Amino acid sequence: MSHEDFPTENPAVVTCGLPYANGDLHIGHLRGYIGADAFNRTLQTLGQDSIYVCGSDMHGTPVAVNAEQQGVDPEDFALEWHDQYEETFPKFNVDFDNYGHTHDETNTELTQEIVRTLDDEGYIYEKEIQVAYDPDADQYLPDRYVEGTCPYCGEKARGDECDEGCQRHLEPGEVEDPTSTITGNPAEYRERTHKFFEVSAFADFLTDFLDGLEGTSNARNQPRQWIEDGLQDWCITRDMDWGIDYPHGDDDSAGDDLVLYVWVDAPIEYIASSKQYAERDGTDAFDWEQVWKGDGEIVHIIGRDIIQHHTIFWPAMLEGAGYNKPRGVAATGFITINGKGLSTSRNRAIWAKEYLDEGFHPDLLRYYLTTTGGLQQDVDFSWDAFQETVNGELVGTVGNFWYRSLLFAYRNYEGTPETTVSEEVRERIEAAIDEVREGVNDYSMRGVGQAATRLAQFGNEYIQRNEPWKLTDDDPDRAAQVIRDCVQIAKAVAVLLEPITPDKAQALWAQIGEDGEIADAHLEDALEAPPRSFDEPGELFEKIEDDRVAELTAKLEERVATAAADDEGTETESDDTTGDEAAAMTATEDLEPLLEDRIGFGDFQDLDIRVGRIEAAEGIEGADDLARLEVDIGFETRQVVAGIKQLHDLDELPGTRCVLLANMEPAELFGVESNGMILAAGDDADLLTTHGDAALGEKIQ
RNA sequence: AGCGGGAUGGGAUAGCCAGGAGAUUCCGGCGGGCUCAUAACCCGCAGACCGGUAGUUCAAAUCUACCUCCCGCUACCA
Questions:
Q1: What are phi and psi of A233, to 5 degrees?
Q2: What pLDDT, in 10s, does the model give residues A360-409?
Q3: A191-215, pLDDT tens digit by residue?
Q4: A658 annotated among ligand-binding-site residues
Q5: Are strands A335-337 and A340-341 parallel, antiparallel or unpaired?
Q6: How much is the average pLDDT of A420-440?
Q7: pTM of the entire structure?
């Protein structure tokens, strides 16, 4: 089964994975939301009737537990994050038609209705399983909140997985000597009746479904294997208070305290949010039931960690409840920072708020995140690469073309020259429009962005090749023609780039004197003549300077290093299987506290630290600790005095590599001049050295 | 362990699904041009035997098998 290309006659719904109401947003999240936003905007420029909806994921154990730890109601806790998200998205031009949350009435009702239908259709059954229970806290413990001993390898294990030992998946009830991670007390097992959704009944359906599924290849291929391995039924209830209650039937004795597993109600928010939009907007404007129950185009853009939820559980639920299934699932890759995995606990991340606080325009990040790699690829973020993209493509190619064309047009014609677009340019723009169409149909936002950038590139080449500045006097007609073409290209670039950089495209739109919103423009408008006159244009993108990048990079690295140092302290704790926490605590307490005062990168740069090699070492007469060293730092050999006499065997030092602060003020100690400072750690003067091939004299940076 | 994704000039990235002239684009390097423009822009050059091995084919970066190295997933952890 293959789908008709976008745009279709049907309404479309685009969604992104729901943010889990439990923490700050970072660029890893943003990548998905921005990608989906750009996808939706592109569909709209194609003329597709399309909306973009999402909502906060409010339920689940992490929210419940974190709220409890803070002594607040889980709803209040989650709503606080929800509010923050809702405020943040517009700042990145992520324009949801509706943004709800899973705890609201619409979602609650819809979820219960769907579950009831699945129950009525016979897809849900009860089964007794062993569930850990904390008698002191008087509550059942979802798997992750139980720790104990792995029955297979004897290592410490979590309730669901032997994460430190044999990696085995553990069924409920398997962990030995269970303790509650909430109270630390021993837990006991109790038999509980839970509800299971018969996913296994949908194997054939899912196989067919995957055959026709559009999107990224990983979202199609991975689930196939799971189906082949045999689908297991899905436990869809939890022993918790926080969540959506299992809908009770009259004869139902089981699910008293049961709420639905968070992954049941989370994707239903896609439907609920669409419904809220339609009801707010009037069903005439958008028919949510057509999309979800009739002929509609449903596209989910998600992270690749939640593929199975969207390609197995979710379509099975939809099928079982008589709903329409997604047309496409696009699973994005991850974001890495400077080549290493993003880690929120280690503070290795670029936070949404942080990015904005640094004063960067959201469109820069939008462009970077959507065009740096394919949707499916992992994308590395570094301030260096960010600068390169912004300065090279947005400033140099797009911005410069926009500005030079419009400025020339303004100065010589006070707007658009009165002539028609040349055939060559019209065809080039049409080709770019086709590239956008192909891009979105291939779920390639990169392709969409590049179609626009390449058109700007053509514009630069075109204006250069025709040199209108030479023609204004010699051949005014020809000059007018060329500039007319350039203004058209500038307008076309704006239309094509709108899905990626909506703000900047709008600014250009205004500069060429167009009324209204460029977001309402269609691709074909790229070929429509711009208004006759416009005002003097301004520059839309500005360069990011090198020292700014250096500053940001240093800031990030310092932060990660600080977090890593903290982490090491805690890691010692958890790695220590004998559980000697007291020792670890003491070790940390002995350390000098970290300085609160931060220094700028400039301050760091003031330190000239070099790689050196100790050539000679001898004690200084009359001094207890001081030694006179000769250190080769490439350019020269320095004499330095260091307080390491009693801590090292001086005879063994020559030949040792070391690290020297070279621009230390000279000092005289015991009559010996010291011309630098050897770096060493702690009271034991553990000498710092290098571990690679750094040449003598190389700067530490 | 199984599975998924990746491995392309110094760096980064496209092409692979629909196999065909020694391969895209960006950054960097070298040389040139232009001066309308944000020291921008345009042109040219150098540079990769497309992770390894073996196949299929007239023809493979593109298909098949095996292998190596990264990243990730394996469902009652959102």
A1: -70, 160
A2: 999 999 999 999 888 888 888 989 999 999 999 999 999 999 999 999 99
A3: 888 899 999 899 889 988 888 888 8
A4: no
A5: antiparallel
A6: 93
A7: 0.80
pLDDT number for residue A574: 27
Least confident among A370-379, A403-412, A469-478, A575-584: A575-584
Strand B reaches within 7 A of the A235 CB: yes
Contact flag, residue A234 CB and nucleic strand B, below 7 A: yes
Distance separating alpha carbons of residues A352 and A84, to the nearest angstrom: 11
Long-range contact list for A80-88, CB < 8 A, 24+ apart? A81/A19, A81/A21, A81/A22, A81/A23, A81/A56, A82/A21, A82/A56, A82/A58, A84/A24, A84/A25, A85/A19, A85/A21, A85/A25, A85/A56, A86/A56, A88/A25, A88/A352, A88/A353
Q: Is A150 annotated as a binding residue?
A: yes
Q: Given pLDDT bands bounded at 50, 70 and 90, which one contains residue A287?
A: very high
The Cβ of residue A127 has, within 10 Å, a number of other Cβ atoms equal to: 11
Task: Read off the pLDDT of residues A265-284 as tens digits, 9 standing for 90 and up.
Answer: 999 999 999 999 999 877 67
- Which residue in this structure is represented by tokens 């936002």? A445
Tokens 């011309």 label which residue? A675
> In whole angstroms, what is the distance from residue A188 CA to residue A180 CA?
9
Burial A484-496 (b: 16+ CB within 10 A, else e): bbbbbbbbbbbbb
A340 touches strand B (CB under 7 A): no
Cis peptide leading into residue A7 (ω within 30°): yes
Annotate A174-195 with b (16+ C-beta within 10 A) or e (fewer). Answer: bbeebbbbbeeeebebeebebb
Asked whether the predicted pLDDT for residue A324 surpasses 90, the reply is: yes
**Of residues 515 to 544 in chain A, which lie within 7 A of strand B by their beta carbon?**
539-543
Paired tokens of A502: 């909506």
Torsion-angle region of A474 (φ positive above 0: left; ψ -120 to 50: alpha; else: beta): alpha
User: Cβ of A335 < 7 Å from strand B?
Assistant: no
Spell out the SS3 assignment of A134-147: ECCCCEECCHHHEE
